[in-house]
Amino acid sequence: MHTPFDAVVLGAGPAGATAALLLARAGWSVALVEKTEFPRRKVCGEFLSATNLPLLRELGLAERFLDTAGPDVRRVAIFAGNETVVSDMPRLGSDSHGWGHALGREHLDTMLVEQAAAMGACVFQPYTASELRRSGGSYECMMTASDTRVLRARVVIAAHGSWDANELRTQPARRTARPSDLFGFKARFVGTRLVPGLMPLLTFPGGYGGMVHSDNGRVSLSCCIRRDWLARSRREAPGLPAGDAVLQHITQHCAGARDALADGRLEDRSWRSAGPIRPGIRGTRRNGIFLVGNAAGEAHPVVAEGISMAMQSSWLLVRRLLETDVAGKPIDYAAHTYNRDWTRAFAWRIHAAALIAHWAMHPAAVSLTVPLLRAFPRMLTASARQTGKVSALCSPSC
Asked: Is residue 381 predicted with pLDDT exceeding 60?
């Protein structure tokens, strides 16, 4: 069965669903292909900075998002060893909702996909894209579930993230395992002592993490830990599941996290894990296929900008695709301008996040810096500003 579309989007996470929604609303015929049933949870910090509020309004979802998400995140902190330093989160202009919020991915992703479908996108879920091939001036995408279908489109957008291997040649080859490989862990807690509206960065040997109040009064704890330190934490906690061993390692070395979770209860008694996570810039196009979200580039989760960058990268791409279509220019023009926009918007965030992550994972570096942060806590506010918390989307003229 060959079904023609203007665009096929692979992956219905925040990046893919945003691209499908915007294209469908502009009148394109769009197929959105997702291998997993929704709702589903992800290893994700769940935070969206205030810079995404204008985009959510454009998508018609701002009110629904604000009604469902956790409280305004108005304060940022560092929990390092026995030290706690707190400062203000920068506010996005004079917007009445000028702060970020956290929302579970089972809610956010479902919300975005439902809106994309309402705009006319055809959602194929659960289907796995198993083959992509060029056919004349278009692509053929084979996808399988209980049946096999072939979709034909002139544009393919890969929004499938960067963690899972696939056979589509839209991701770089996996490297051999290294001690420095990062693994992500995520859990939610109820009944914690974390102050609502505070989002701390947790530092501990071999890793970093974050905590934030999400929807329904729950606190999300997400972290990354090096492969060698993960193995060490498991040796020090024989018999414990990996997630519990990592939590013990965090609370042993981070008093702020230990105090915040003193009365907390692990929701569903379950941890989720993923990896290895290898942040970096991968490029905005491969084999003629456009890349958005983590498929294009991934910042260390230490700066909590992953969801915002994913959605905003799709906004940048769709804007250039529509502009190219109207002007009758070749698709390579859209590829060139999108790459330029993406680099301007995100490359510096990825580099800054790498510096912060490597600092956070080394106790000696942290111990040297914390006294300075304690003396000048506004440096935390400045750091949040520099990592994109109030960097709005590019204007149409950029």
From this structure: yes
In a domain, 188, yes or no: yes
183 and 266 in a single domain? The answer is yes
**C-alpha separations of 58 from 98, 158, 221, 265 in Å:** 16, 22, 30, 37
The residue to which tokens 């006294």 are assigned: 371
Q: What does the block give as tokens for 143?
A: 């996808």
What is the spatial distance between Cα 155 and Cα 87, in angstroms, rounded to a whole number?
45
Residue 307's H or E segment, with its range, is helix 306-327
Residue 146: domain span = 2-46+104-174+278-360
Q: What span, in angstroms and rounded, lies between the C-alpha atoms of 1 and 148?
A: 8
**3-class secondary structure, 366:** helix
**Cα–Cα distance for residue pair 282/294, rounded to 1 Å:** 9
Query: Which residue has 């998400």 as its token pair?
Result: 69
392: DSSP letter: P
Q: How far is CA 213 from CA 104, 190, 260, in A?
A: 10, 10, 12
Instruction: Give the three-state DSSP class for 267.
Output: helix
Q: What's the whole-model pTM score?
A: 0.94
Q: Is the pLDDT of residue 162 over 80?
A: no
Is residue 142 within 8 A of residue 130, CB to CB? The reply is yes
Following CA atoms 92, 323, 286, 172 in sequence, which dihedral angle do they give, to the nearest 10 degrees?
Answer: 10
Statement to judge: residues 261 and 356 lie in one domain: no
For residue 34, what are the CA distances in angstroms to 20, 265, 294? 12, 32, 16
Model confidence at 97: pLDDT above 90: no
Domain count of the fold of the chain: 2
